[in-house]
Design brief:
Blueprint (H helix, E strand, L loop, with lengths): L1 H24 L5 H8 L18 H9 L3 H14 L5 H78 L4 H20 L4 E3 L25 H7 L12 H13 L8 H7 L8 E3 H19 L1 H12 L3
Antiparallel strand pairs: 1-2
Length: 314
């Protein structure tokens, strides 16, 4: 009897504890709306979807590039014809069409990953050079400042000490020399610093095809290159993504594809003349261009995600 009473009390305690826990975990009325109000809106809310779909103009364009536009339509038709209780033949056809779409999306994703990996490789090599040469530059500036301090200080001491027991012009000579050294040495440090590149001058990088320069590396697969050379729906002018990228570089970085900037563009794209050296500014600009190029290509992820969402509905 005592055992039964003990078990009954324990069971009642557990029920009470679970009820209290559930009550504490349940949000108060209106709390959910307050939390949702703090969340940032999804970027997809700014995309112009067709009513009742997860498709945009850019997504449809990508489906045509992947050659699955008609397959998606066939999938929709097969699901509609199958109804709520499709037979075995309908299920097999639906699975076959969906698998074809998924394989195409997987193929596009892998091509995208490969292009991004190639860009990241060039970016890593550029940043390695920039880090190495920045250390050299900082070391030379430290030596320059030290030389300026020691030279001007020593000559200043000689100027002051010689003026005590020796008449001009000896003290004046020390003073003039010290002032000249304090000006000349920093000016020497301001000269353009250039360094021998750690990479071969004919290797090129992923910027080369963007500038219409020959490139023998892995480069861009056909799908990625077609995507870059297609017109984005939100682009006000009828120019391709690559042309829009070049237009921004011309406007904000003064990199026009003309004879004036021809040599600079080649250096940015990784083509150097024999014995030619590069500057820290060039490496910095190259890194920034590669990052902007990567961001432009990564926009393809949104279209791939939308296509996948649309396909998984059926």
């Amino acid at each position: 009897m005592r055992l039964a009473i003990t078990l009954s009390l324990a069971f009642s305690f557990l029920l009470t504890a679970s009820g209290v826990l559930a009550a504490t975990q349940q949000p108060a009325e209106g709390a959910a709306s307050d939390v949702d109000a703090l969340l940032k809106p999804s970027g997809k809310t700014e995309r112009n979807y067709f009513a009742g779909t997860s498709l945009t103009e850019d997504t449809l364009a990508l489906s045509r590039m992947l050659d699955i536009h008609q397959t998606i339509e066939d999938l929709k038709k097969a699901v509609k014809e199958g109804g709520s209780n499709p037979d075995q033949a309908s299920l097999v056809r639906i699975m076959f069409l969906r698998q074809n779409c998924q394989r195409a999306l997987q193929f596009g994703s892998l091509e995208l990953e490969e292009a991004l990996a190639n860009i990241d490789g060039d970016l890593a090599a550029t940043q390695l050079e920039y880090s190495k040469f920045s250390a050299k530059y900082e070391r030379s500036m430290t030596l320059n400042n030290t030389a300026t301090f020691l030279t001007s200080g020593t000559l200043g001491i000689l100027d002051s000490s010689s003026s005590i027991n020796r008449p001009p012009p000896l003290s004046n000579i020390f003073g003039i020399t010290g002032n000249a050294a304090s000006v000349a040495i920093p000016l020497w440090g301001l000269r353009p610093h250039r360094y021998k590149s750690l990479q071969s001058g004919d290797a090129g990088n992923m910027l080369a095809p963007i500038f219409d320069l020959p490139y023998e590396g892995v480069g861009y697969d056909p799908i990625i290159w077609k995507y870059l050379n297609s017109v984005a729906h939100d682009e006000k002018k009828t120019i391709t993504r690559r042309q829009a990228l070049l237009a921004r570089w011309q406007k904000y970085r003064d990199l026009a594809k003309d004879n004036k900037h021809k040599d600079e563009i080649k250096r940015l794209a990784g083509y150097l003349k024999p014995g030619e050296k590069i500057s820290l500014e060039l490496l910095k600009t190259r890194s920034e261009l590669l990052v902007e190029l990567r961001a432009e290509i990564q926009s393809m992820y949104a279209d791939l995600s939308d296509l996948n969402t649309e396909i998984m509905k059926y």
